[in-house]
Amino acid sequence: MTKEIRLMKGNEAMAEAAILAGVDAYFGYPITPQSEIIEYLMSANTAERTGMQVLQAESEIASINMVYGAAGCGKRALTSSSSPGISLKMEGISYLAGAELPCVIVNVVRAGPGLATIQPSQSDYFQAVKGGGHGDYKLIVLAPSTVQESVDFMRLAFDLAFRYRNPVMILTDGIIGQMMEKVELFEQQPRLSEAPEWATRGKKPGEKSTVVTSLHLESEDMEQVNLRLQAKYREVEKNEVRFESYRCEDAEVLFVAFGSSARIARKAMDLARMKGIRAGLLRPITLYPFPVDEVRRLAGQVSGMLTVEMNAGQMVEDVRLAVNGRTPVEHFGRFGGMIPGPDETLKALESRLEEWHKKQPAQAE
Amino acid sequence: MAEQSIISPENLVYKKTEVMTDRELHYCPGCGHGTAHRMLAEAIDELGIQSETIGVAPVGCSVLAYYYLNVDMQEAAHGRAPAVATGIKRVLPEKYVFTYQGDGDLAAIGTSETIHACNRGENILIVFINNGIYGMTGGQMAPTTLPGMKSSTCPMGRDVKTMGNPLKITELVAQLPGTYYVTRQSVHTPGNARKARRAMKKALEYQKENKGTCLVEVVSNCPSGWKMNPVDSNKWMEENMFPFYPLGDIKVPGKGLVNGGKDGR
Ligand SMILES: Cc1ncc(C[n+]2csc(CCOP(=O)(O)OP(=O)(O)O)c2C)c(N)n1
Ligand code: SF4
Ligand SMILES: [Mg+2]
Predict the structure, then answer these.
(1) In this structure, which residue's CA is closest to atom 5 in ligand 2?
(2) Spelled out in words, what is the top-level CATH class assigned to the domain B24-261?
(3) Contacts of A63 in chain B (CB under 8 A)
(4) Is the pTM higher than 0.90?
(5) Which of A103, A336, B20, B163 is the most buried if burial means most Cβ atoms within 10 Å?
(6) For A259-276, how does the pLDDT look when each residue is reduced to its tens digit (9 = 90+)?
(7) Could you tell which of B114, B130, B136 is best to mutate to test the pocket of ligand 1, judged by most ligand atoms within 8 Å of the CB?
(8) Which domains are delineated in chain A?
(9) Is residue A292 within 8 Å of A273, Cβ to Cβ?
(10) Three-class SS of residue B129?
(11) Within chain A, which residues score under 70 in pLDDT?
């Protein structure tokens, strides 16, 4: 069977992918630049196609808590928003992480802080990767850089969410959400028929009732829960790191960039190569778990790294942590909705070369 | 009568419902929460729907309601129970879904979730325990605290000029087309408790017929927060809470608002 190829907008493609992934319920609240997701779902006749429930909630707070309720029943629940709305969801996200409920949250990032602008940005990296809500928890964070990946990651996100009983965030931005690209859609997946044993589906006679909660009043218990969560995160770090490298084998300088920025950095890398600069690009796909080992390995090879981000320097901190001083790591960014161009990105690299070449790359450990 | 014959089935006149666990309640002596739990549990029992019921616990003194109510339950964030219940009901429409919430939870931090769930006519039962105070956090002012009533955050009494008036959220949601049955009850005497149980049972029956949101308010006491002994607290409740929050149906199926929805009589 030949696969169907369609030209789709990123947001609509994600919505279609959600239906195809067998998602049971979507709860959302409109906000630019991602309202096409709920608009698409509302006009896609999901009730007939798969039985998927779609509801426009009164707020992002309500929608994430609806996700909590549906996820607590062992269903595939999805919500999406953009930065200001994601801030409102943070309370619920912390509760979902605490109660170990699987779900997927899409953040089509726009610039901040505050109401700011509807233009694309990557300034929610910290919020997605470092917490945002309260408590020691982690989201698995996937960063697509194409419309195709936006589609593929919807399915992957639910697989990971259920494998680890953990919320997964797809961190994309207004560029990928709004642009049209060709995509190959996957086949319709069935909705879940079995209820996981932790789900509230009505107490079976003679069995203990099931409780979904993040409350553990005794410190001893709460510490055990935290230790269990941390053990789970270590598993995630061991098994789920994803990244893509371009021309890293012989690279002597490295761009590190995710999502939209990675497309720009790749162009800058090509331009650099044309000028005889042996540049490579590492594109983290999972922002958590971060490709720490790969960054560390490359730190022994290159004379410097430049992160390209549509923010004031967020992922650069994770790169520096991984590199641990072994090679210079710098940040080039535009923000507030401005998008860096390949030429200025190349210039940013070139301006650092002399400095970097003075220092010898550290030896690999 | 010998002990054995008392406990033989044919002599049985009362039995603790299976829908309550054997766990010792953590509530203060004389607190209405325990009785309200039991009335809800008995309503579920009488309908034989224990295995088809999913509850949502609030943040408040009854945060651990799932220790006592022997049904599948989810613990919601403060005020978010109606949204959580919406999520449950939308994916499992054939189940009976209820929330159990205090006045701070339902009528302050969760006002939006309450009103919108009611306005959508979510087919859920909301059990609303109005004790006029934040019991769990040590007796602070609630949205329902009476004018002049003292609490730790209005030690001179609630001054409505600066602190706002008590919110009659039950009358408010009764105005919404999404609500089907709205009533105000109490559980401080056996007679009142039985009425409250009947109200909850009716509400669950309506849920089977997908009639819309049902809300059963229980005006209750908080001896600790009110700094009274249980007997005095019930007396104070009758004398002060009931005139402001009159008991009775507020919206009745088929008849609509009682007394224009102005109060519970
Ligand atoms: C977001 C958030 N804010 C505040 C609190 C603290 N808190 C816990 S319970 C509560 C008030 C509960 O009062 P009520 O809903 O009336 O329940 P009661 O204890 O009186 O039954 C507050 C303010 C919290 N847990 N979460
Ligand atoms: S503080 Fe008040 S509401 Fe809470 S258990 Fe004690 S008496 Fe009941
Ligand atoms: Mg209260």
Answers:
(1) B27
(2) alpha beta
(3) 83
(4) yes
(5) A103
(6) 999 999 999 999 999 999
(7) B136
(8) 5-188+227-239 (3.40.50.970), 244-358 (3.40.50.920)
(9) no
(10) strand
(11) 1-2, 360-365
